[in-house]
C-alpha cells in the first residue's frame, strides 16, 4: 500500500518544525511509525528499525533508511542508533488480546525491546520519545483521566506499558537522559489496522462497506477518546522538542464519544444501510475513558487539532456525510 500523505500529514510535518536531525523510528513499518516517518523525511535524516513481523516495508517512506532487525537485539539497536539525535520508539506488540494469549512474548517484545532502546540511548545521549498507552490506567476512578491518576492496568499489555512508562521516566532521573513517555488514547486514521477498541473504527468501516451488521460490544454506551494519527505525529514531534522531559503525557483530544454514536457516524459516512447490532460485552472492558489534556498543553504545547468529524473522512472508505 502507499501510505497516505494528504493535508493532515502535510500540516504536521511543518508544525512544529523538527529539522536537521538524525532520527530513528523503531517500528517504522507500522501504523503510527509509518506516519511519523512520512512526516519527518525531507526535513531530517530518518532511519527505521523494524523486523516487519507486524508492520510492512511498503509502509516505510522510500527516503528512509531501513535497518531490518529485532528491537530486542542489542546489536541491531546499536547499529540503528549510531549517530542518532532522537529515537521515536514505536515498536512492540500492540494487541491486548495477543498479550493475554501470549504474555511472555508481549513482555519480551514490549519491555525487553524498550530496555534495549533506552540503554542504547543512555550510551549515546540520544533523546528518547517512547510510546506508552492509556492502558496504564486500567479502569479509571473518574474521568477525565489525568497523568497522576491511579495506574492499575487490567491486561498484560497494560502492565507492559506501565513498566515501559516507568523505565522511560526513571532513565531521565538516573542518567539525566532526555526522555518523554506518550500515553496514547484511541488512535485512528488512514492505514489503521483493525482489532480492539483502538481499531474499532476500522472494524466498523469494514462492516459498513460490506453491508454487514455493525457489531457493538455491550450496550454501546461505553465512551472513548479517539485521537487522529496526525495529532499523534504532532505530539511526538513536540516531545522531541520540549524542555519538560522525564515526564509522561496523555495524547488525546479530551473529548469522548459513545461507541453507539461512533457506529452511527461511521455508517452515515460509509453511506451504508448496515444494521447496528449489540453483542456480548468484552470481558474486562472499561466503561468510560477520556483524557485530561492539560499537562500535554502545558508541557508539550500540544493540543489535538483534528476533531472526530474532521478525522473520519480521512479513513479510507468514508466520506463527509451530508447534513
| Chain-averaged pLDDT | 92
The figure for the number of domains is 1
- Helix percent reads 25-40%
* Biggest sheet descriptor: 7 strands, parallel
SSE order:
HEHEEHEHHEHEEHEEEHEEHEHH
Distance between the termini: 32 Å
How many helical elements? 11
Shape: globular
The stretches of 5 or more residues where confidence is low (pLDDT under 50) are 1-5
CATH class: Alpha Beta
Task: Please list the strands of the largest sheet in the order they lie side by side.
Answer: 3-2-1-4-5-6-11
Walk me through this protein's architecture:
This protein is an alpha/beta fold. It has one domain: NAD(P)-binding Rossmann-like Domain (Rossmann fold), CATH 3.40.50.720. It has eleven helices and 13 strands. The protein has helices at residues 6-12, 31-40, 74-80, 96-101, 103-124, 156-175, 200-209, 229-241, 259-269, 294-299, 308-311; strands spanning 22-26, 45-50, 65-68, 86-89, 127-133, 179-184, 186-188, 214-217, 223-224, 226-228, 247-251, 257-258, 276-279. The strands form four sheets. The protein has a seven-stranded parallel β-sheet, with helices on both faces. Strand 5 (127-133), helix 6 and strand 6 form a beta-alpha-beta unit. The chain is globular and about 55 Å long. The two termini are 32 Å apart.
How would you briefly describe this protein structure?
This protein is 36% helix and 17% strand.
Task: List the topology elements.
Blueprint: H1 6-12, E1 22-26, H2 31-40, E2 45-50, E3 65-68, H3 74-80, E4 86-89, H4 96-101, H5 103-124, E5 127-133, H6 156-175, E6 179-184, E7 186-188, H7 200-209, E8 214-217, E9 223-224, E10 226-228, H8 229-241, E11 247-251, E12 257-258, H9 259-269, E13 276-279, H10 294-299, H11 308-311
Parallel strand pairs: 1-2, 1-4, 2-3, 4-5, 5-6, 6-11, 7-10, 8-13
Antiparallel strand pairs: 9-12
Helix pairs in contact: 1-8, 2-8, 5-6, 7-9
